[in-house]
Amino acid sequence: MHSPVGKIAHLAVAATLTLWMLAGYAIREEKTFEVTVSIPTPDFYVLPNDPGFLEREQKMGWDINRKTLLPLSTSFDVRNANGGITARLEHEPVLSNGKELISLNVMFNHQLLTLTDTEVVSESVANVGSRVPLKIEAIEPQDGFFAGEYYGSVQIIFDAQLGSG
Fold this sequence. Notes:
alpha+beta, Immunoglobulin-like, seven-stranded antiparallel beta sheet, three-stranded antiparallel beta sheet, 12 strands
């Protein structure tokens, strides 16, 4: 038979172990996140160098001293093993606050994009692949920029051209 002191000691140890195990679970953290991948064909791709660029909302900065919007810039890796690459805008790129509009200039590889196809990467450059810049600049309205929260989107369509070879 166990003595009362032994039973108390045994219960104390059991209680301590139980509390320690419960405390261990009380501080556990779990993290869940999405993982995706887009593996391009080796013959044609136009991909941002920053893989999160297209998934995140891009914010244009405001230069308070010059009272202007700062351009957005990033770079893209491009390749077309069979010719050059053209690009065009799906719609006129603008920012809007519901009342005011701010037009945007979109330049890909230093070429101003419009609603019609423009060659943005020549056949010789596209054939070996290259890293080229994308730059989006606000066009200051005639009456200047008005305060507000502005939103918009830029949609660029890239096409692989068949080369001369």
